[in-house]
Amino acid sequence: MIHIKTQVGIIGAGPSGMVLANWLRKHGIDAAIIELRSREYVEGRVRAGLVEQNTKDILKELGLDARMKKEGIVHDGVYLSFDEERVHIPFGELTGGRTITIYGQQEITKDLTDAWLQEGGELHFETRATKIVDFDTKRPKIHFEKDGEEGILECDFVAACDGFHGIGRKTLPKKSFQSYDITYPFSWLGILANVEPSTDELIYAYHENGFALHSLRSETVSRLYVQVDNDESVDNWSDDRIWSELSKRLATPGWELKEGPIVEKGITPMRSHMIDSLRSGRLLLAGDAAHIVPPTGGKGMNLAIADVKHMVDAFVAYYKTNSETLLDTYTNDALRRIWRAQDFSNFMTKLFHKQDAHGSFTYRLQKAKFDYLKVSRAYKTTIAENYVGLPFESFKN
Ligand code: APR
Ligand code: PHB
């Protein structure tokens, strides 16, 4: 039997768990992490790569933004396209200088993991948390299994940063929360391609064949997505078919899409999921454990890290001043931003995806929104400030 003792026991070494551990260390609070997967698996998972202003500020504060500053690409705007007409939303000008950076989520996770381990942080890969107990007492415990051996991590608080499939949410007492779900009738087929991006900033596009997104990873790697049906298989999508759909859907007069070798293909379903309580006693949830947003808007990782900010504030108040006030307000402090991001992600999803026949009432409402944003600085500002992420102060009562 392995026995570990710490102050905050963290389940999950994704972005939320790793930001939490590094941030707590900065405040002199002990933490230990348990992660189901191997280090290679976690660091190799290809996911979205949009880092909003708050997240950049947090990584800077933690002194962990050096590689992102060097290798990430700052974007001061985004292109929105509808029926081949393209509009530019300038972030800085509309939000007082706030921007986003394109830098892969797994690169952030890698930077945070390296920093944590370099200074001797405790992190157990390939270790499965099996049960969380006694979270209604002052000494909760995480039961785990590592290399066939059982263990117990005893702590003051459990931070479940264990994603959608983790045990954190399943452990919350059923009657303590309500859940909310939307399953969208479409998915994204995403590709990574070794080709120079055909755009300097991201392009989100509505087209009668369906949504498309042009994102990127570097000067030589592009990341692109097309809307497909939920029951689609990548086997039905040859490289030629993907490039041909992308160039139709992203088209605008005078612009051409560069093609290149596709090195990865995958299908992601689209859903919105929420629970309205992130805490029970000394068990606190953050990130995908508590909420999923559709990827249109790139909020997933940013929201996870925003939850962690509130969690860190609560733990610091507890350990430094013995106050439980911020633990008590944790759920509501986090939920205000989460609902905002749920709304924005849903708004972007509905605006740019094909939901009904081209020319239908729904289509005309989508088009009316786009025509309005072309002429309205106010509407553009709404999109810009949500896209780069509203400052934390905006959510204070
Ligand atoms: N025991 C130990 N670890 C677990 C367990 C378990 N029982 N269950 C899940 N985990 C681990 C997973 O292997 C994963 O590495 O928890 C981690 C959760 O990490 P993420 O899924 O990356 O979740 P989070 O840190 O909240 O980050 C949210 O991820 O899915 C994206 O769009 C999302 O960008 C967002 C980000
Ligand atoms: C990505 O780069 O993978 C990405 C960017 C923006 C999104 C979703 C995904 O909205």
List the helices and strands and how they pair.
Blueprint: E1 2-5, E2 8-11, H1 15-26, E3 31-34, H2 39-44, E4 50-51, H3 53-61, H4 66-71, E5 73-75, E6 77-82, E7 85-90, H5 91-95, E8 100-102, H6 105-118, E9 122-124, E10 127-133, E11 141-146, E12 149-154, E13 157-160, H7 168-171, E14 179-193, E15 203-206, E16 212-216, E17 222-229, H8 239-249, E18 262-275, E19 279-280, E20 283-285, E21 291-292, H9 300-321, H10 325-352, H11 361-375, H12 377-388
Parallel strand pairs: 1-12, 2-3, 2-13, 3-9, 6-15, 13-20
Antiparallel strand pairs: 4-8, 5-8, 6-7, 10-11, 11-12, 14-17, 14-18, 15-16, 16-17, 18-21, 19-20
If you had to describe this structure to a student in words, what would you say it looks like?
The protein is of the alpha/beta class. It has 12 helices and 21 strands. The protein has helices at residues 15-26, 39-44, 53-61, 66-71, 91-95, 105-118, 168-171, 239-249, 300-321, 325-352, 361-375, 377-388; strands spanning 2-5, 8-11, 31-34, 50-51, 73-75, 77-82, 85-90, 100-102, 122-124, 127-133, 141-146, 149-154, 157-160, 179-193, 203-206, 212-216, 222-229, 262-275, 279-280, 283-285, 291-292. The strands form 4 sheets. It has an 8-stranded mixed sheet. It has a 6-stranded mixed sheet with strand order 9-3-2-13-20-19. It has a 4-stranded mixed sheet with strand order 1-12-11-10, with no helix packed on it. Helix 1 runs parallel beside helix 6, helix 1 runs parallel beside helix 9 (300-321) and helix 9 runs antiparallel to helix 10. The longest helix is centred in the C-terminal third of the chain and has 28 residues, at 325-352. The protein is globular. P-hydroxybenzoic acid (PHB) binds next to loops.
